[in-house]
Amino acid sequence: MASLQPARGTHDLLPEDFRRHARVIDIARETASLYGFAPIATPIFEFTEVFQRTLGDTSDIVTKEMYTFTDKGGEQVTLRPEGTAGVARALISNGLSQHLPLKYFYAGPMFRYERPQKGRLRQFHQIGVELLGVPGPQADVEVLALGQHILDGLGVWNRTTLELNTLGDPESRDAYRKVLVAYFQDHLDKLSADSRERLHRNPLRILDSKDEGDRRLVADAPVFADYLNQASQDFFGAVKAGLEALGIPYNVNPRLVRGLDYYTHTAFEFVTEALGAQGTVMAGGRYDGLVGMMGGPETPGIGWAAGIERLALLLAETPEAPRPVAIIPVSAAEEPAALALADRLRRAGHVVEFGYGGNVGKRMKRANKLNARAAILIGESELARQVATLRDLDSGEQVEVPLEQLADRLSSLR
Asked: Of residues 294 and 52, which shows the higher confidence score?
């Protein structure tokens, strides 16, 4: 083997990348907690049926992108391609419906077999939220506000646009589906092969087709808004009014859809032009029919997911690593005392690097290479007097500090 590389569509999160990644998760988790969303983690793999039932047998994710395999016990399992299905399954498995409403935040890896490109990998990572058990539009407004709040906290909201649409209630959806099928039926010879296959199974997904011929047909297709009943119009009106009350701007995009029947009412995407063609950074919608379709009690829900890799690319700068303090014993005789001092300072909350070898000059060079904030030098004379020499590596100032005061003195240098 000439070279050992990561599998295609995966990458290593080296320290600099990891700090960007962690910044996204930390800000998202902290912001979600302000809205009462509790952290949850579901298994990285589930029985395949969990995703086949929730994502639809005809979806690209199920037919082309899922990592599915038979385990040693003969069970068919799938690495999770998204987070919502696992949370809905957890609601049912753990009998949580008696505790509704429930609000969850999650973060972790997802897996899809697709062509890798900028910000899109085969093992990728998402943050997401799910709000379960609230049928009214106030839940939609809160979930959208949380998404905007997180993007703002990351410093990317000013490069992002919220696109919003309504899929109506089941009655409105059925009415629209009929006219949509009739329209595309009249242009069957111009539809792509994929869209012809979807026409009767999942016609709304044609509206999201990337095929140029399909897109020309979609441009003249009937618009969902013309088939909304009054209840659906009122629901969407309340969502828009809530966003306006919060000062969150949005664009209504009548072509923004979700193809699966359990989606209702609000659908949305936060998009950016800063990442080229792959512009969606956060997307979600209301899925009132999902839990019931999985065999649980009918439970309204709404949520979104966001790609951590894409959000990390949008961060203005890489978060800095904490600057350590370097402890440098003058000779081997002081190393046990230096080691004990390093332990005390770490337990007091300081980042400490302990020189592993070499003379004082070499250890000082290593401290500068690590961008250390300060160096603590301990020699025989200092130990005898229970002091250490503290050198500020930014200013060059050097003072003797009693060992018992070092932790407090270092706090002033942070």
From this structure: 294
Question: Looking up tokens 């300072």, which residue turns up?
Answer: 345
CA distance 247 to 295: 39
Which distant-in-sequence residues (6+ apart) come within 8 Å of 368 by Cβ? 393
Architecture of domain 15-169+229-314: 2-Layer Sandwich (3.30)
Alpha carbon distance 249, 243 (integer Å): 7
**How far is residue 272's CA from residue 281's CA, in Å, rounded to a whole number?**
7
Residue positions forming the annotated binding site for L-histidine: 82-84, 112, 126, 130, 258, 262-263
Token readout for 99 is 């505790």
Strand-strand pairing, 374-378 and 387-392? antiparallel
Number of C-beta neighbours around residue 55 at 10 A: 21
pLDDT exceeds cutoff 70 at 133 = yes
Cis? peptide before 101, omega within 30° of 0:
yes
Spell out a b/e string for 353-379, using b for 16 or more CB atoms within 10 Å of the CB, else e.
bbbeeeeeeebbebbeebebbbbbbbb
**Pairing label, strands 251-252, 161-166:** parallel
Mean pLDDT of 229-239: 97
- Binding-site residue set: 82-84, 112, 126, 130, 258, 262-263
Whether 328 and 367 have beta carbons less than 8 Å apart is answered as yes
Instruction: Give the CATH fold of the 325-411 domain.
Output: Rossmann fold (3.40.50)
pLDDT at 372 over 50: yes
The number of helix segments (H) and strand segments (E) in the chain equals 15, 16
Q: Contact at 8 Å (CB) between 317 and 309?
A: no
Confidence band for 2, pLDDT divided at 50, 70 and 90: very low
d(CA 176, CA 338): 75
**How many CB atoms lie under 10 A from the CB of residue 119?**
20
How many other C-beta atoms lie within 10 A of the C-beta of residue 380? 12
Give Cα separations from 218 to 63, 199, 255 (angstroms).
24, 13, 8
- Domain positions in the chain are 15-169+229-314, 325-411
Phi-psi region of 71 (alpha: psi -120 to 50; beta: other; left: phi over 0): beta
